[in-house]
Input
Amino acid sequence: MDFKIQAAQAGGLAALVSDALVLVVVGSALPSGVDKTLAGLLNDAVALGDFEFKPARCLLLHRPAGVKATRLVLVAAANGSAKAFKTAVAAALGALKPLGVKSLAVATVGGEALTAAHAEALVTACSDAVYIYRHTKPSAPADAKLASVALVAPKAQVVPLSRGLLQGQAVALGISVARECANRPGNHATPSHLASQARQLGKRYGFKVEVFDRKEIEKLGMGSFLAVAQGSEEPPRFIVMHYHGVRAPGEAKGRAPVVLVGKGITFDSGGISLKPGGEMDEMKFDMGGAASVIGTMCAIGELKPAVNVVALIPSCENMPSGRAVKPGDVVRSLSGQTIEILNTDAEGRLILCDALTYAERFQPAAVVDVATLTGACVVALGHHHSALFSNDEALAGDLMAASLSALDPAWRMPLDDEYDEALKSNFADMANIGGRAGGAVTAAKFLQRYAGKFAWAHLDIAGTAWKGGAAKGATGRPVALLTHFVLSRAAQDGR
Ligand code: BES
Ligand code: MN
Ligand code: ZN
Output
């Protein structure tokens, strides 16, 4: 898809040539400065009761008189923010979806001037709307026809808005890569497949990529990760990707990197603590954290920010078998701490803890792990916010800021020591589960025990990485948040 900024004034919108003109109307009344034709159409639609100034309300008009565009979509936005703009654009694209629109022009009336954030939001909204999963579905509809999108703005804004388009294209690519990766079924998206995806990215963008197999993971001493992997015939992989965006003068090793860790359980049956059958298929998405890290590395490869990033992906299946780890088994993690596995379905933390210990060797500036970790997180926050836990206020602040600027919502959660009590074990340094209460927090407390040597944050994306029901599929979250976070770290480094 091609994106550009098209210079035009609000008064000249009716003269724009395109297959569809999307007119985002900001506020609760007809704004001034709209050309006569469009103002007339809007007023008429309101008088007829066909349009209201309410968020995401849409009206599709076909060849309206006096408008050059073949179709006109009127859509209301609650305010002038990038968030409201994105909601409005997404609604308009929904209204246009079954149509053969090749070229689109998007303009706003009312509200403040557009910003780079609006331009980025336009790109991610369009990219989301045209994504179709087809890898294992030959009958999927053909590619959307939408080929060119123009954001209409005054001439003086062309340069800053174009930057937003470029950043949006990188983020959108990362999101699509993550969605595609997570949507592929468990028999396709195996740990080895994730490794080959990482290697391909490495080739395309010049990252160094290391892949460790079962023997090498044993040699490293990742007893906790291996305990999860041992029940499956499918071989595990530990994937390490290195992006070098900056090497400070005089520093042999370069700046301390940001380390991203993604949970890569390519199927979570629960293991011996088998999950119930209903919706178990959705546990193919249990590598959503890994997919989002891969997608983020892709966006980083496109944007080449001046920052160093290491991605760590422990990946395996969680399966029951004669060789599977059992409730009550005690394993030794890479850190030396022992773990009593009381429930084999709490496997995410068991693979992540060893990856967190591995992260120590990079003397990282910050470590952020991303995981579809707990059902309790879905109960707590639903499908809107990802849960954010952190032992470092500055890091938490940067991630919350990234969440806001990326329009990828996250909500800070507590890590009080009182929650740690639940992890006591009579037979090991800790148990791998607490009680039912506060399950998302006790999972984070478990991880925190492996993150004592660096600034660390944990994103539980169990509720946000995919959608269930009729719209079942991966969302690509939180690629946008992570990309914005990494970019913000580059900007800080540059000061
Ligand atoms: N992958 C699941 C978490 C999950 C559940 C994500 C539902 C999305 C939707 C994780 O491995 C898991 O099974 N967690 C258990 C932990 C429990 C045994 C302490 C859970 O949440 O039930
Ligand atoms: Mn599980
Ligand atoms: Zn899991």
About this structure: The pocket of manganese (II) ion (ligand 2) is lined by residues 268, 270, 318, 345, 347 (CB under 6 Å). Residues 2-152 form a domain with the Leucine Aminopeptidase, subunit E; domain 1 fold (CATH 3.40.220.10).
